[in-house]
Design brief:
Elements: H1 14-28, H2 34-41, H3 46-73, H4 77-91, H5 99-109, H6 114-119, H7 125-140, H8 143-149, H9 156-170, H10 181-203, H11 207-235
Length: about 250
């Protein structure tokens, strides 16, 4: 059981629930991960940056799919109208002029082949398992839990605010144009997290539901953390790249 496993045992006020959710982010969001700290310090090689971008594409590409599953599960037209903005943000108007396309631009700007990135065949097995677990969670758990799992967006502006300036300062091959994906994300994430947090506050109205939303956020933080764990294991000093995954020396 995590440190938050019985946080709602006695019931929480809305303010108390929000405080616990923010504590989850402070303790478990992936801006605390050593791989992120290496990125911020300029310690990653270009190959490690490429591996990060290629594997993260798997996560980016599943976001509109998991959001479509959330939309399909709601019988509230107002909820669906608000939530579909997330799909539009990532897919754009034609599938390739939104956030996914901008992430692909980041990956190719780092020297990766676009078709190889889009195929996701070179991604780490652990990445695919983590992303698949997130899609499955949003498909099979309650709508409230699925919404709560998106609350990592409460902390997204923080990591972007750390990541972008550091990447521009520490890596001479990274440009503002390559990082265009991040231009809109703080505003989008704040809009989306405000809506999701209000939904959670309104619907997590007993200890059981409150604990479910806390656990959902812990789970999502674990997904993001596991993805960086996999990168650190495969592309760290010992070089534990699994068969079939992106190999910088073979590229």
């Amino acid at each position: 059981m995590s440190e938050f496993g019985d946080a709602a045992r006695n019931g929480l006020s809305p303010a108390g629930l929000e405080a616990v959710l923010r504590e989850v982010g402070a303790a478990r969001y992936h801006n605390r991960h050593p791989f992120h700290h290496q990125m911020m310090s300029g310690a990653l090689t270009k190959a490690q940056m490429q591996a990060w971008a290629l594997n993260r594409y798997c996560y980016q590409s599943v976001i509109p799919r998991k959001d479509a599953m959330i939309i399909a599960r709601s019988d509230d037209p107002e909820f669906r109208a608000e939530w579909r903005k997330r799909v539009e943000d990532h897919d754009g108007s034609d599938g390739w002029n939104g956030g996914i396309a901008r992430w692909l631009k980041l990956a190719t700007g780092l020297g990766l082949d676009a078709d190889a990135v889009k195929s996701e065949k070179l991604a780490l097995p652990a990445t695919r398992f983590a992303v698949g677990a997130y899609l499955s969670f949003c498909t099979n758990r309650t709508l409230l839990e699925a919404v709560a799992s998106s609350l990592t967006e409460l902390f997204s502006p923080v990591i972007i605010g750390e990541r972008v300036p550091a990447m521009l300062a520490k890596y001479d091959y990274v440009t503002a144009d390559i990082l265009a994906y991040f231009d809109k994300r703080p505003t989008q994430a704040s809009r989306d997290s405000d809506f999701a947090l209000a939904y959670v506050m309104n619907h997590a109205d007993n200890p059981e539901r409150q604990q479910a939303v806390i656990d959902a956020l812990v789970f999502k933080c674990d997904v993001l953390w596991a993805m960086l764990d996999a990168l650190a294991h495969a592309y760290g000093e010992k070089g534990n790249i699994p068969p079939g995954a992106f190999d910088p020396e073979a590229a």
